[in-house]
Amino acid sequence: MRAGRLARLCVVPALAGIILVANAAPAWAHAVLNSTDPPKDGVAAESPPELSLTYSENVEISFGAVRVYTCAGSRITAGSPRHAPGNGHTVVVSVPKLAPGIYLIVWHVISADSHPVGGTYSLRIGPGPPPTASGCATETTAKSSVTVGALFGVARAGVFIGLALLIGGAVFLLLIAGGTSAARATRRSIWIGWIVLAVSTVAALMLQGPYAAGSGLGDAAKWSVVHDVLQTRFGHVTEVRLLLLVGALVLLAFLGLLDRRRGAPIWWMVTAAVVAIGLAGTPGYAGHAATGDFTIFAVPLDTIHVLAMSVWLGGLVVLVLAAFGGGFSGGLRRALTTFSRIAFWCVVVLVLTGVFASWREVGFVFRGYTSTTYGHLLLIKLGVVVVLVGLAAASRSIVRKHRTAPLEAPDTAIAAIDERTVAGLRRPVAGEVVFGLAVLAITAMLVNAQPARSELAPKLFSGTVSAGTGASAMTINVTIDPARVGLNTIHVYTLTPKGEDLSIRDMSAKLVSTDRSTTVPANLVRAGPNHFLTNGATIPIAGKYQMLVQVLQVLDGRLVDTPGVLNVPIR
Q: Least crowded by CB within 10 Å, which of 224, 321, 354, 390?
């Protein structure tokens, strides 16, 4: 199989993977709305001066919005969203005085890993039961155009392809192809990698604005939009990558030295290593690795993962284009043996760093792999990698099988060994390239998918219990936000069995762990005739709790104490 045929074979899975990434890109969310003040899908006794939305991670508001609508679809003029002082998790927006009734709040922000996320929730102002639906308004969050999503997916995939060709090609040139007839083809691959990475980076920078804001492709060329992107984490990481690409451009000007000398100068190798590490670190620092838990380990390990991927897959593509195209002038056996050793250790590094990344983003919970998009993609990637490693093992076996000719052997004997080696390697190496490109496509999809841990994480607790009998019968509705260790907001509403507001005299409540070791008083205060709340319930330990509610009401001139019990999980 000739190099040209192999190259054409690689185009099909690459395009298929890019199309798959592009079609899926706009659909996934990352940051999660943990709590709001006033509470989402709750009741506020009077119109608040501002709305506060708190997320699971830092969010960007350069392209964000918090819009307020009546149930008739009329938009209420609100202020510009801003962060709470010193808190990147919380977004605050001022609102005018709202008349009693139900309102729909539509929000749209950018996750810390550069992906847009949006949603809606309802809020009742004044007396009445909590709203039961959040979709009363006609307008909802904007959606990115299909074209923007597709192009943004292509750009993300292009970043990984460019990194593989640039870094993998440079390592291949330094350790294998330098001074051989394959050096020219290797240099060409490195330059292609630099161009692909540069173009993909600029394209992603321009597309991030309309992608995040849910606008059209025309906004990609607006300087005001690009300027706003540059103020975000994604923009800062892009600036660093472009600076590193300028440094790489200077280093590439010295590639000719590697053809005439056995080794590259020390200063070149040290500088190139720094640039390569920096470039490999940019996808993780703009994505999942820089958010969530254990980032001090996640960012460097993700960088090492990208480096190993680049050296293996990038080197493999260069090997196909250079070696199988007739390079190395009889030294192909040595080149294949050297690359086989490098690829083996790259696989070891990929497996170890991949296990850590899988545990961090999914955990060792079976449901995380079977019931989430991220888990499904990870399983597919694992299956592809297993096949890829199997093909690599077959290639390694073929290389080790053919012995090197003696030093005094004629050129025809050496050429015969090389020919037999190449003949045996064509199919497994072609398969490695195909499945390697599939891994890159799936990796680009994983970058854009919501981690399974956050997808499975329970949201705020909301529960209802029937209490009392006869004239004292009622329904108690409880919301605990965010239902996790630390500070929580608790809302308790009392309703008649028919769902109407039930005015009461007083109320008390407490949370008690199932083993009775922890008790948390709720310290409820009145917020309305049938509404009590607290903003200061501090829960010290995760686990299963019972919330014990005591409702005091007046019936026929006498006080009646009605208890209610709800089971509450605290994470």
A: 224
Averaged over 556-571, what is the pLDDT? 88
- Tell me the helices (H) and strands (E) count for the chain, helix number first: 15, 18
Phi–psi pair at 511, nearest 5 degrees: -105, 130
HEC per residue, 451-492: CHHHHHCCCCEEEEEEECCHHHCEEEEEEEECCCCEEEEEEE
Q: Residues 263-275: pLDDT tens digits?
A: 677 888 899 999 9
Q: Phi and psi for 384 in degrees, rounded to 5?
A: -65, -40
Closest CA to 549 of 569, 524, 516, 526: 524
Whole-number Å distance between alpha carbons of 1 and 399? 17
Tell me the per-residue pLDDT of 339-392, one tens digit each, with 9 for 90 and over.
Answer: 878 888 888 888 888 888 777 777 767 777 777 777 787 788 888 878 877 777
The pLDDT value recorded for residue 137 is 40
In whole angstroms, give the CA distance from residue 385 to residue 390: 8
CA distances from 366 to 188, 378, 379, 454, 544 (A): 45, 12, 11, 15, 22
Closest listed residue to residue 368, CA positions, set 293, 376, 439:
376
Distant-in-sequence, close-in-space partners of 408: CB < 8 Å, separation ≥ 6: none
**Rounded distance between C-alpha atoms, residue 451 and residue 29, angstroms:** 9
Six-digit token string for 77: 């003029």
Angle ∠(293,274,287) on CA atoms, nearest 5: 30
Per CATH, 33-125 and 461-570 having the same topology is answered yes
Burial (Cβ within 10 Å: 0-12, 13-18, ≥19) of residue 99: exposed
At 308, give phi and psi (nearest 5°).
-65, -40
Q: What are the residue ranges spanned by the domains of the chain?
A: 3-28+145-456, 33-125, 461-570
pLDDT 10s digits, 3-25: 444 444 444 344 434 333 333 33
What pLDDT was estimated at residue 197? 95
Spatial separation of the C-alpha atoms in residues 102 and 14, rounded to whole Å: 50
Number of Cβ within 10 Å of residue 386's Cβ equals 11
Contacts of residue 132, defined as CB under 8 A and 6 or more positions apart, other chains included, come to none
Stated length of the chain: 571
What CATH fold (topology level) applies to the domain 461-570? Immunoglobulin-like (2.60.40)
> Which positions ≥6 away from 485 have C-beta within 8 Å?
539, 540, 541, 542, 570, 571
- For residue 549, the model assigns a pLDDT of 94
Report the percent of the chain where pLDDT is more than 90: 14
- Write the burial class of residue 33 (CB in 10 Å: 0-12 exposed, 13-18 middle, 19+ buried): buried
State the pTM of this model.
0.62
- pLDDT at residue number 332: 63
Q: What stretch of H or E contains 215?
A: none
Cα–Cα distance measured from residue 57 to residue 69, given in angstroms and rounded to the nearest whole number = 26
Give the mean pLDDT of 535-549. Answer: 90
Q: Which two tokens stand for residue 527?
A: 């917020």
